[in-house]
Design a protein that fits this description.
One of its GO terms (molecular function) is serine-type peptidase activity. InterPro entries: AB_hydrolase_fold (IPR029058), Peptidase_S9_cat (IPR001375). This is Prolyl oligopeptidase family serine peptidase. The chain is of the alpha/beta class. Helix 4 crosses helix 5. The chain has 2 domains: 68 residues, Thrombin, subunit H, CATH 2.40.10; 248 residues, Alpha/Beta hydrolase fold, catalytic domain (Rossmann fold), CATH 3.40.50. The chain has 10 helices and 14 strands. Strand 4 and strand 5 form a beta hairpin.
């Protein structure tokens, strides 16, 4: 019996070790979905018909979103307008313009909230611009800049696995105000230094935004607006928390990650991952990066902010829950102007209502730069 007891004890110990190892491996895998960069495009939408000014699409999960979008495929791009009909798994939309390439049945594409894919201000908008390098902590960071007469610059900070082209929709409005736009990259972007090869969710990336502010000041800027999207909308608040007193006149946050717990939990729910395992993933994220999710929770730190904030959220956002942003706005009504849209999805507030977005942007930029 004693021998049997020892054997059972060993079996239980081994099973516990295997269980812990399995949980640890699952937590490591799930953490990787959050902090390991993944560049490249996928094309989940198929063009099943194209006649005149009407295209019929199948696939994807957002092809019926209201508003104006690009349709981007390998070698081509078109501008899409209103939804005309839906049914049988297909969505028919107006085609406003085929900008490049050949739109035809069989093409695989994606609905493009950026409008013009991975282009630049010259090819997308016909605006003069320059490619520049921003000296950063880890090395030179590729960027582009448009010109303007104002000494207040806009620094555009893109989202996770994205690039500066995400800001192209807003360059014409800033250009009309005479404001130069600096579209930056940060660590782990394609062409940028990698550091340890992991996203730190804003805990270190803010230093690259600080480098961009220093670059702008060296080029004659006396003030800046920081325009952040998604993860960039979390990096930007961290920047002003870490560099008080710098010439930041305002923040523009579009579908921002103001508390990483929310999108991590949502991602777990969408994948059928139990919340307890998501908690393990968060623990591993913190251990792999040295970041603190509590420190990255800007709602928790809302009282630290001193500059005006223009905040865009869309209720159909399936990537970043709007709850933290709404709580941030409620905590700082003295600073935050909230614009809430419906149907555009993640960073889709402009697409669902460009006129409303641009009016809010113009009013905010004019007010804070007086």
């Amino acid at each position: 019996m004693k021998r049997l007891g020892r054997v059972l004890a060993w079996v239980v110990a081994v099973l516990l070790m295997l269980s812990v190892a399995g949980v640890g491996a699952a937590g490591w895998y799930y953490s990787g979905l959050v902090i390991e960069p993944s560049h490249g495009s996928s094309y989940p939408v198929e063009v099943v018909a194209y006649t005149g000014d009407l295209v019929t699409l199948r696939g994807g999960d957002d092809t019926a979103a209201p508003g104006t979008y690009g349709l981007t495929w390998d070698g081509g791009n078109a501008t899409l307008g209103a939804v005309v009909s839906t049914g049988g798994g297909n969505v028919a939309r107006r085609v406003e313009k085929v900008r490049r390439g050949t739109l035809r049945p069989g093409v695989h594409a994606y609905l493009d909230r950026w409008m013009w894919g991975h282009e630049d201000p010259g090819t997308a908008l016909g605006l003069p611009y320059r490619k520049v390098s921003v000296p950063g902590e880890l090395g030179d960071l590729p960027a582009w800049r448009t010109e303007g007469s104002s000494t207040t610059w806009v620094i555009a900070v893109h989202g996770r696995n994205a690039n500066a082209s995400e800001a192209l929709r807003f360059v014409p409005l800033f250009h009309s105000l005479g404001m130069p736009v600096l579209g930056i990259s940060y660590r782990n972007d394609e062409g940028a230094p990698a550091g340890d090869g992991l996203f730190h969710l804003g805990a270190t990336e803010w230093r690259d935004v600080t480098a961009a502010v220093s670059y702008a000041r060296g080029q004659g800027a006396t003030g800046v607006l920081l325009h952040g999207f998604s993860m960039g909308g979390g990096i930007v608040p961290m920047t002003v928390r870490r560099m008080p007193g710098e010439p930041v006149k305002g923040l523009i946050l579009d579908s921002p990650v103001l508390d990483w717990n929310a999108p991590i939990d949502l991602g777990a729910d969408q994948r059928g991952v139990p919340r307890w395992l998501a908690s393990v993933g968060k623990f591993v994220v913190e251990r792999r990066t040295g970041a603190s999710l509590d420190d990255l929770d800007h709602v928790r730190h809302a009282r630290e902010f001193r500059v005006p904030v223009l905040l865009f959220v869309d209720d159909a956002d399936a990537s970043v829950p709007v709850g933290p942003a709404l709580r941030f706005a409620a905590a700082r009504p003295d600073l935050v102007t909230l614009v809430r849209t419906r149907g555009g999805g993640h960073v889709g507030s402009w697409n669902t209502d460009p006129g409303r977005y641009e009016r809010a942007l113009r009013d905010f930029a004019t007010r804070v730069t007086r």
